[in-house]
Amino acid sequence: MSLPTFDVSSTAEQVADTFASDIAGKNVLVTGTSQNGIGFETARVIAKYANLVIITGYSLERLQKSAEALRKEGGKAEIRPLVLDLASLAAVRKAAAEVNAYSEPLHVLIHNAADTNATYRITEDDIEGQMAIDHLGPFLLTKLLYPKLLASTSSSWLPRIVIVASGAQGAGPGIDWTMLRKPHPGSPQESSVFARYHEAKSANVLFALALAKRCEGKLRAYSLHPGIIFSNIFTKEAMLPALKAMGDIKEDGSQNPDASHPWKTIPEGAATTLVAAFDHRLNDKSGAYLMDCADASETAGGPHNRSAFNSDIANADKLWTLSEEIVGEEFKI
Fold it and tell me: Does residue 282 lie in a domain region?
């Protein structure tokens, strides 16, 4: 059977419907599933066909609202909420222990959550907030759930890890390794939300690359740029001056249709995640960086393609080693 070609305007539901037979019976964990976000949409369309969808969030109240809304959709999957605060290594360990106690295997792990506080903060583990939530928390969670993911392997399935990054991965020079844990006082990473965001999203891309290299033949890993979606980050008071200066939003805070980049809807923004999670045409492209539902790993050809820094396996290996040191656990494959 010939499969459709997905592109910038494809929706998550179109992708899910195409791979309904691949999603059937699968157990999937999606982080960051607040309503009106691409994580929620990702969970919603997967739940149409899957066996189990585990949704996470740090706020129990918002998580319960998401679970209730997903159940009302009437999908086939059981919706199982899991409180997970990626800013706390202790909370990550607690949540991972809960998942590992589930009787079901885990087929797909989707790292969708991101820090949307738009403010500089240091966590209880002495880690800068964006890097904690966007990379170091997910790194530890992956390490702890790795055996459970491997348990889902069959003759027709290799487990997948999907990491939602951003085109911002290519918007700077890469990661300053001396500041992976937290920025130096007075550095641009301390004073600029966007400078640190670039580093956190670079870490996402490099983590997928490292996973693909180290887990070759055991699982598949992908990172992606979902596109630019008018989500709740665009309403954060701390972000408004910078977003107005860039022309993303108008003076009244509304979305600027004349911004220098195209906007995607939430269903379009979640589409590439679904491709990364289930499209078997990517089986031989583990480690790839995706955009608009296609491989965008080449370092030339567009502003959102994977940067040279984030295509370098030496950088991926360095990130892995430093991440192990910061979380205090060795991630052996």
Answer: yes
